[in-house]
Amino acid sequence: MNCLDEARPLGAHAGCSHHVAGEDCRLCLVRPLSVCAALEPAEWASIEKMSTDVRFEERATIVHESDDVIALFTITAGVVRLVRTLHDGRRQLTGFALPGDFLGLSLERTWTFSIEAITPVTVCRFGRAALMEYVDQKPHFLMRLHEMATHELSLAQDHMVLLGRLTAEEKLAAFLLEIRRRWARIEGHASHHIPLPMGRQDIADYLGLTIETVSRTINQMQRAHQLVIVPDGVRLLNIDYFEQLCP
Amino acid sequence: MNCLDEARPLGAHAGCSHHVAGEDCRLCLVRPLSVCAALEPAEWASIEKMSTDVRFEERATIVHESDDVIALFTITAGVVRLVRTLHDGRRQLTGFALPGDFLGLSLERTWTFSIEAITPVTVCRFGRAALMEYVDQKPHFLMRLHEMATHELSLAQDHMVLLGRLTAEEKLAAFLLEIRRRWARIEGHASHHIPLPMGRQDIADYLGLTIETVSRTINQMQRAHQLVIVPDGVRLLNIDYFEQLCP
DNA sequence: GACTCGCATTGATACAGATCAAACCATACG
DNA sequence: CGTATGGTTTGATCTGTATCAATGCGAGTC
After folding, report:
1. Which terminus has fewer CB within 10 Å in chain B: N or C?
2. What is the CA B4 to C1' D1 distance in angstroms?
3. Domain B16-158 has CATH 2.60.120.10
4. What is the pTM of this model?
5. What are the residue ranges spanned by the domains of chain B?
6. Digit-coded pLDDT (tens) for B145-162
7. Which residues put CB within 7 Å of chain D, the nucleic strand?
8. Which of B84, B106, B247 sits opposite A150 (nearest CB)?
9. Is pLDDT at A14 greater than 70 in this prediction?
């Protein structure tokens, strides 16, 4: 059982709390970014009835690899990591999810990765059964899910290239530009300032490197005056440098 | 323009030839494995009208990265590789497609990888426009595409773990067991004999290694009596050894 | 049979990134 | 304030895999 379990009494679980009141799709800041962008305003009421806001503390495990899928959700605030762990403790992050990202595209019975809160997180939660029914009734909603899934697949292939064929320096450059692009989509404009809420170890496990190599590479880039390390992330000084590193 | 271009006159292109007559879904050997498994026998006639068999020679490029998607297809015989190439020539294979595998899950406008025939290949070709229309009319067919796409996504995540966190020996073991499992699905039973129609360079580019490391690792396994190299692939002597290498 | 041609294998060496170890530096807390 | 604590940085060294360079070998061809 986890925080997304439908049967769980409100507030009965450490690390999360429900805010049943207050969801209002009209006010949703991430709607244009999310799966809900496929819906007409007239359809908001129907999906609103299926949804519940849930909050998680920093470091909470939202779902555990191989848990049953009881609910699916959109991140409305905060950042999570998607984690696969090997028996001996080696980790590979398959991605980060930012506000607007939907988790549970697959409609399958069990999760294939853990989802862990990097910052305090708010999600808009949908019960699996209700959403499955909704999908059956609204083919254009299924089409939207399918488009999102195949887009994810294309990004996964990009990441395979990164993991299999790029150097540490190229991996870091690609990572920083990826995160920059994703913040830009959320904020509506690109900035040279890139918040990095995830720690060095998470970046390492996402890029297939060690924490030391991540640290050294970022600090080399700083010494080369390509970026500045700031308390919450980095500021890029020379975008061209990073773009030229992406082959 | 490529071999799958709808407007292309029959036989006008090197490396492929149409066999317009002869498709018969009732006789299709890969149907139970393919996207068509979602269809009722009564629906076969409708999809049969949209499909054409096309053959490609060994080494033919079936589609090129960034080509427009004019047609989608199911592999009915032979093996292809899915290739991403960097500007400087580094390659990453994102997968191999075997008989029964569907290519074009994404329904997007352009391909994000090249598709190249490793052996002589036969495909069952569907025009994109016709298939899109079909999808609109048959939500259960879209659901089948979506399930296949999310399954692919899960496999892509497995492959990220392989590329980011496994050693050369573990990568090879995982690769051999993957190919074994896929042949077993096609043939109906698992065998210790694993045909490997792809060359060492393809294996290397799939696993994020060099051809030398692939060759050395396989030959080490042979010297350790865990497998035997045979003309068309390998024969596993000790399945346990390979399974224990998959963490 | 001799000669390509396109892989695959093997050997010697180099190096990018891992590993091991220690120091650093915020932040939290008694 | 001093002192844990958890993450980050830096340094020294090691090593798995890449790189460079031959050599081997089977299939096709003249």
Report:
1. N
2. 76
3. yes
4. 0.93
5. 16-158, 166-244
6. 999 999 999 999 999 999
7. A 199-201, 211-212, 214-216, 218-219, 229; B 167-169, 208-210, 212-213, 231
8. B106
9. no
Question: Taking the domain A166-244, which CATH number applies?
Answer: 1.10.10.10
| D4 C1' to A199 CA distance, Å | 21
Mean pLDDT of B209-214: 98
Domain A16-156 class? mainly beta
- Which candidate from B136, B154, B164 shows the least CB-CB separation from A92? B164
Instruction: Concatenate the DSSP letters of all residues of chain B into one string.
Output: --TT-TTSPTT-STTEEEE-TT--GGG-SSGGGSGGGGS-GGGHHHHHHHEEEEEE-TT-EEE-TT-B--EEEEEEES-EEEEEE-TTS-EEEEEEE-TT-EE-TT--SB-SSEEEESS-EEEEEEEHHHHHHHHHH-HHHHHHHHHHHHHHHHHHHHHHHHHHH--HHHHHHHHHHHHHHHHHHHHSS--SEEE--S-HHHHHHHHT--HHHHHHHHHHHHHTTSEEEETTEEEES-HHHHHHT--
Residue B74 scores a pLDDT above 70: yes
CB of A156 less than 8 A from some CB of B: yes
What's the pLDDT at A15?
A: 55
Question: What pLDDT shows up at residue A49?
Answer: 87
**Mean pLDDT along residues B160-165:** 98
Q: In this structure, is the CB of residue B212 within 7 Å of any atom belonging to strand C?
A: yes
Q: Do A149 and B146 touch (CB under 8 A)?
A: yes
pLDDT at B19: 47
